[in-house]
Amino acid sequence: MTDAERSILVVAHAQRADTVIAAERVVAALREAGARPVLAADDRAELSAVRGSFADVAVLGVDVPVHDVELAIVLGGDGTILRAAELVRDGTAPVLGINMGHVGFLAEIERDDMDNAVRRVIARDYDVEERLALQVRVKDADDSLLYETWALNEATVEKASRERMLEVVIEVDGRPLSSFGCDGVVVSTPTGSTAYNFSAGGPVIWPTVEAISVVPLSAHALFAKPLVVGPEHAVAIELLERTNGLGILWADGRRSHDLPAGARVVVRRSERPVRLARLHPAAFTDRLVRKFRLPVDGWRGPASAAEPGIAP
Fold it and tell me: Is the pTM of this model over 0.85?
């Protein structure tokens, strides 16, 4: 593939002036390098309304099929990165996040390193890391498929009405584990373990650990603690018939589906991971400390590089 045929998706919105300026710089740098910048249709419409330089950028799915996209450069926070993963889901492009927001846990770099990041994308100087994703299916009482989606962070079953509680039973590999009333249940990947799962009291799971976390929300039960299962297991949340009202399924907080009493939400590992582009081989510990601003004052460090887990 020649540089002229290389298509790079730029994902950004026009809600912040600094993001618009950054997107314009990225588009110009890609063109200068001989690559073809691409925008989602909604993004191009929003950005073009602010800056005319976006008006002739190729449109994803119209001018460039998703399978032809080499990589997605994302300017924004975690929500924008999740949207980018959704845009390239049917292709193979990895996602490179440049944090324009606050925490930006999924982002690879901060905005100050943006120009260097684009240069490295052009030089193909990056690694690709595959992250476990979830397959999510909603079935009725007769086991007929009603809805199917996927998630990078989490699939959440929640009550649809604030004043009503869900009555659910948790199932693992076709066997019931426990039933209780609750506000909902979060089923998370390692990537999502620092998002909703973390806020709900679930464990932080290292990205190198392939596992699925299950965390009840405000459960009325003696045994309703967070649960971690291997990626080969299927987790189901069934809304019991005695549930008074509707539930709702959310996938990454972006896609939703109503859940009547008797519905079953079956979550298991997706056969297709999400691919993230990485520029720096930073330790996950450092990412946790930096993003959550964890206190490490007084840390002495290992006395010897020969200690377990420390490379000589």
Answer: yes
For residue 97, give the nearest of 74, 124, 79 by alpha carbon.
74
Q: Going from the first residue of the chain to its last (312 residues), give the mean pLDDT of each consecutive group of 10, the final group possibly shorter.
A: 76 92 96 97 96 95 97 94 97 95 78 90 96 97 94 96 88 95 96 95 95 96 89 96 85 96 96 95 88 92 68 48
DSSP 102: S
Q: What distance in Å separates the CA atoms of residue 46 and residue 198, rounded to the nearest whole number?
A: 33
Residue span of the structural domain in which 58 resides: 3-131
pLDDT for the residue numbered 20: 95
Q: Which of 79, 113, 131 is the last residue of a domain?
A: 131
Reference 12, options 79, 112, 58; nearest CA is: 79
The pLDDT of residue 153 is 97
| Burial class (CB within 10 angstroms; exposed 0-12, middle 13-18, buried 19+) of 208 | exposed
Confidence (pLDDT) at 207: 93
- Looking at the structure, tell me whether residues 126 and 205 fall in a common domain: no
Asked if 43 is an active-site residue, the reply is: no
Are 10 and 98 within 8 A, CB to CB? no
Residue 212 pairs with which residues in a beta bridge? 229
Q: Which own/partner pairs from 119-125 qualify as long-range (CB within 8 Å, at least 24 positions apart)?
A: 119/29, 120/279, 121/8, 121/71, 121/73, 121/96, 121/277, 122/3, 122/29, 122/30, 122/33, 122/35, 125/279
| pLDDT at residue 1, as a whole number | 45
Q: Is 186 within 8 Å of 215 (Cβ atoms)?
A: yes
CATH number at residue 38: 3.40.50.10330
121 and 185 in a common domain: no
Tell me, yes or no, whether 158 and 64 share the same domain: no
| Strands, sheet with 247-251, edge to edge from the N-terminal-most edge strand | 227-229, 212-217, 184-188, 154-159, 247-251, 255-259
Q: Which of 78, 140, 143, 258 is catalytic?
A: 78
Our count of domains for the chain comes to: 2
- Residue type at 199 in one-letter notation: S
